[in-house]
């Protein structure tokens, strides 16, 4: 068993026992490691201490329970393993920036610390071959876009913290607000029936500590131009890309996106490549309730690449 597989076993154990008291000695036994080495290895691979991770996962599950507005906060706190509602409310506000009662009333979109699949940072599949990660099927391959694609929409900004990817950040989701603003600005506009929508993160003119984020629908030449003067255009350039795709429901989209981002980062690194400046997400409706999501990542050669070795390998 690889070291990461031992840690993954404990992640599964934690997820199945969030409502119970979970001791580090117990987890170390599951991993067949000493408590000292287990905690060091866990922090290295999960990018969180064991105690902090357990708290974040409990809060993420609690957030889903709070969406049922008839549930009492005290009951939710006890269901996810907190000893009392006071410590639960304090932890919830520290992590998300809002109280559980405020969240339950407003149901603002949240970013959660998702349960990681460590295989996404340790297993490389061939181009086009599927990689299954807890119900999400990822496929990755290089593609060339021969002609640029133009999208019309709006630009917003969100706080950016280097090194924290989707599924590793917590708080109210600022990107979802930009999507909501886009749909509000384009309500009832026929061009929203375009086959492809895009969300793309890029530096742009964002203030310090922030990233620009464009949301738009693909433009159709000769149609609707006179009705889109209030929108901004953004062009997806013709060039080579690494494309990671998956199918998902809306409810599972954020989790799937986090997995796709983590695996794409790992795949690029193993092939001596690095993302080059902007990060497009393309969305197409496949069938009722099912969306096809594609990350089109521009890339360049990574400096000092040494035969596929990464610092994360054990």
TrEMBL record:
Domain of life (superkingdom): Bacteria
MF terms (GO), sorted A to Z: DNA-binding transcription factor activity; sequence-specific DNA binding
Transmembrane parts of this sequence: none
Domain HTH araC/xylS-type: 8-106
The entry's keywords: DNA-binding, Transcription, Transcription regulation
Protein name: AraC family transcriptional regulator
Lineage: Bacteria, Bacillati, Bacillota, Bacilli, Lactobacillales
Source organism per UniProt: Enterococcus gallinarum
